[in-house]
Amino acid sequence: MRPFGSAKALAVLLSILLPAARPAAIPSFHRRSMPVIVDERSSARGSSSSSSSSSSRTSSASASASASPSANSNPKSSGPTTEVQGGLTGVLMTLPDQIEDAGLKRIPDDQHPFIAPGPDDQRGPCPAMNVLANHGYIPRNGIATFEELTTGMMEGFNMEVHFAAGLSALNFVSRGNAFANKISIGGESILVPPLPGNIDGNVTGGIAKTGRFEGDASMSRIDANLGDNKNFVQSKFNLNLLQLGKFGDDGPDGNNTVVNVKTLVAMEKTLFELDQKQNPKFEFPARRMFAAYGQTAFLMAVFANGTTNATTLPILDAFFRNETFPENWFRAAVPITGGTNAKISSQIAAAIPTKPGRNNEKGEYVEDPEPPAPFNSSLPCAGYLDQAKSTPAVLQNTTGIFKKNVDFLTGILFAAAKVNPGCTQFAPPSGPANV
Ligand SMILES: *[C@@H]1O[C@H](CO)[C@@H](O)[C@H](O)[C@H]1NC(C)=O
Ligand SMILES: *[C@@H]1O[C@H](CO)[C@@H](O)[C@H](O)[C@H]1NC(C)=O
Ligand SMILES: *[C@@H]1O[C@H](CO)[C@@H](O)[C@H](O)[C@H]1NC(C)=O
Ligand SMILES: *[C@@H]1O[C@H](CO)[C@@H](O)[C@H](O)[C@H]1NC(C)=O
Ligand SMILES: *[C@@H]1O[C@H](CO)[C@@H](O)[C@H](O)[C@H]1NC(C)=O
Ligand SMILES: *[C@@H]1O[C@H](CO)[C@@H](O)[C@H](O)[C@H]1NC(C)=O
Ligand SMILES: *[C@@H]1O[C@H](CO)[C@@H](O)[C@H](O)[C@H]1NC(C)=O
């Protein structure tokens, strides 16, 4: 049985995050009835063999989206942009403009030198975020606003605004303060207060807190259940390098040093096998499977040298181990869209038969039940529902600027999810608080 359809369909279905074709200036929510172009160009920005699917596809997004929040993009012009609730000042979030000089550029520029983090600076499980902070593309203390995270991803990695905003939104609804507009890219911080009324407990977790977005089978971190899930672990990362040594393409740095899809598939299989065996409480639900394959795809889509489109062993080493931009590295020549990344993650998903699931008490991997229709239409759609079910329901019960920000963030996530054909239903936050 193939609940998520054929491999070819997956290539389209998996493009959860938004395509390039959408003009940044037009709020996605106002374009509900318009066709969405799922951009599939530049599949393998490396030298892997790419499945020769059509160059672009049109899918109708005539979503029965009536249940979605009456979201807009938090217009920059009207209404107050700050508000006090429970002694805390809230700040209205806005979607930054797509950066204008979104071309090939050597990164870092002179304004963004590497400075190692100090003892009070937050760093976490996401190497890309740590690199952006180490170079000041986001605040060096590791505490950022929605706009800062999104703009940092655009400037440092040339990620297209909707792709960047989708990732910011995921992190903010799960582990940020969506009212104060602050998130820690690491652990808890006094600079990120709890939500008004402590509705999600008396602290705000930060990206490193496991359970909602952060999860098992990471490329370079230990499962939270087994130890430190925040810091780079060379021995775990070496497993990936072993796969590169077996499956990588040849390049200027040597044979088997250039990342391709085969390498990524082997990596994901290896990481799953290791952690499923080692971690009695191993969990790989739909949201985590979707995120894990998406993050692995970053290696080719986001970390590649923009002049060659190749991700090499030294490039991986710089990003993961040193948490710095590699020497003489160029960001992508054209903005990287969610579709670009999804083209790669869909190939990973198609090559691995494992279904979302988790270990039982005996340490045996058991598949999760399939989600109800229409969320069973694709892995991205299943992941979208699963993520909403891990987002505190109480966020729905907020008011004023807090509610506006929640609607803004969940609206971004739904807009991304419904790019996948059949993923037509808004999933409100419906998970437990204070976990
Ligand atoms: C989703 O579930 C519905 C209802 O059980 C079923 O009819 C449909 O075939 C399923 N879709 C997929 C893609 O499995
Ligand atoms: C790299 O990818 C970009 C975007 O797809 C493309 O325009 C460019 O020609 C590629 N460059 C090389 C050297 O392959
Ligand atoms: C937060 O709540 C926990 C119990 O849930 C308690 O142990 C802790 O002292 C509280 N911390 C603060 C700063 O209120
Ligand atoms: C790379 O592989 C080719 C054969 O595929 C071999 O001729 C060459 O010596 C190898 N290069 C290195 C640096 O090992
Ligand atoms: C990583 O850091 C080490 C120690 O500072 C340095 O020797 C090495 O050149 C760096 N490598 C990369 C790829 O940045
Ligand atoms: C990126 O590609 C350019 C052009 O080939 C090259 O000079 C540079 O060294 C490469 N950078 C890295 C980090 O591989
Ligand atoms: C949201 O508010 C409604 C109405 O007051 C209440 O019934 C519901 O339990 C609240 N939900 C949460 C998750 O707090």
Task: Describe the secondary structure blueprint for this structure.
Layout: H1 7-13, E1 36-39, E2 56-59, E3 82-85, E4 88-91, E5 105-107, H2 127-134, E6 143-144, H3 146-157, H4 161-175, E7 183-184, H5 234-247, E8 249-251, E9 254-258, H6 261-278, E10 283-284, H7 286-301, H8 313-322, E11 329-331, H9 338-351, E12 357-359, E13 365-367, H10 379-388, H11 400-417
The structure holds 2-acetamido-2-deoxy-beta-D-glucopyranose (7 copies).
Residues 250, 254-255 line the site of one 2-acetamido-2-deoxy-beta-D-glucopyranose (NAG).
Characterize the biggest β-sheet. Answer: 3 strands, antiparallel
Distance linking N and C termini: 34 Å
Shape descriptor reads globular
**Count of discrete alpha- or pi-helical segments spanning 4 or more residues:** 11
Residues in helix, %: 25-40%
Would you kindly provide a written description of the structure presented here, covering whatever features stand out?
It is a single chain. By secondary structure, this protein is α+β, with helices and mostly antiparallel strands. It is built from eleven helices and 13 strands. Strands 10-12-13 form a three-stranded antiparallel beta sheet. A hairpin with a 5-residue loop joins strand 12 (357-359) and strand 13. It binds 2-acetamido-2-deoxy-beta-D-glucopyranose (7 copies). The site of one 2-acetamido-2-deoxy-beta-D-glucopyranose (NAG) has 6 residues, from helix 8.
